[in-house]
Every structure is written in structure tokens, then in C-alpha cells.
Automatic annotation (TrEMBL):
GO terms for biological process: negative regulation of DNA recombination; negative regulation of t-circle formation; regulation of double-strand break repair via homologous recombination; telomeric loop disassembly. It comes from the Eukaryota. Pfam families: ARCH_RTEL1, DEAD_2. One of its GO terms (cellular component) is nucleus. Keywords: ATP-binding, Hydrolase, Nucleotide-binding. Residues 1-94 form the Helicase ATP-binding domain. InterPro entries: DinG/Rad3-like, Helic_SF1/SF2_ATP-bd_DinG/Rad3, P-loop_NTPase, RAD3-like_helicase_DEAD, Rtel1_ARCH. GO terms for molecular function: ATP binding; DNA binding; DNA helicase activity; DNA polymerase binding; hydrolase activity. Gene3D superfamilies: P-loop containing nucleotide triphosphate hydrolases. This is Regulator of telomere elongation helicase 1-like. Transmembrane segments: none annotated.
Amino acid sequence: VCPYYLSRSLKQEADVIFMPYNYLLDPKSRKALSIDLNGAVVIFDEAHNVEKTCEESTSFDLTPYDVASAINAVDRLLVEQSKEISHRDSVNVDFHGETSASGFKLGLSTIAKIKQILLDLEAAIDAYDPSDQGITKPGIFIYEVFEKANLTFSSKTAVYEALEHIIGYLAQQPGIFLNTSGLQKLSDIIQ
């Protein structure tokens, strides 16, 4: 019997469950473990660490390197897809769909829009002069930065879906490793 799956099934009927509190405080972990806290009494051991854990679960770091690596990944994809379209046009292949021969389903204009959002985000971040310790701002600040990159509440779903599609496609490509951590980080932030 696998202890993990046994514990998971037994927790449905348990009166007392012992677990690290970060599982309770992290929304992704709670969802993954199907933890329902409604009506529950929660006792924290090592409660002096709870504040830091809460801060970490609701904050993030977005570095210029993250954005630069995301731009690099999207740029490489844009070049690759452009070459594929040029090659397809040169051999007179009749192509009427949005899916390329490589199986990628986003058009060049969508990839270019994502790249422009990333470039605008990079410019917005570069406009601030952080100290060696970085910048700490109120939560509303990130919405102002994202708005400068045309990443708004109305566009976030489309951008998120495009990023996820790009990440998935790049992760399946054989050959040279391409760092998609910046794309993944931005995708997680948007989500």
C-alpha cells in the first residue's frame, strides 16, 4: 500500500490530520490534496513561521532575467514559425488552417503580440530603478506595470492561454534546450 494514497483516502473520514501548514496555506496544494477547511479547527505548530509562509504564498519575484528569457523563447519560436511558413510557401503547399506542419496552433500575429507584451513589460520594469534589494510595492503596483504592457483583466485569459500553449510546444521540442522558466513564471503570475 502506498502511504500517500492511503493517507489521502483516510483523510476523508479522519477526525484529526497532522500535516505541514504550508499545505493548508498554499491554494494550489489545498486544491491538489482536496482539502476542505469548512468547519475545521486548525491548530498550527510553529505558528511563528505562518506569517512568512502567507507572505510567500501571495507574493512573487519577477526579475528582468525572467522577462528577458521569456522574450528570447518567444523570439526563437517566432523565427522558427516564420521559417516554416516561408518554406511551406516556397514549395507551394496549400495551407488553409491555423496549425503549422509542426503542430503549433498559434498564428504568427498571436506570437508577435505576445512578444510585444513581453517587450512592453520589460520596458515597464526597466523604468524603475531598484536598489540592490529590489523593489517592494503595494499589490496594486503590479496591475499598473501590467497595464503598461497591455496586459489587463480583459486580455489576461487570452495571454495566459497563449503562454501555456507556447510553453507546452517548446517543452516538446527535441534538440537544444530552451529555457522556458520566464514564460512559466509569467504564466503562473497571470493565473
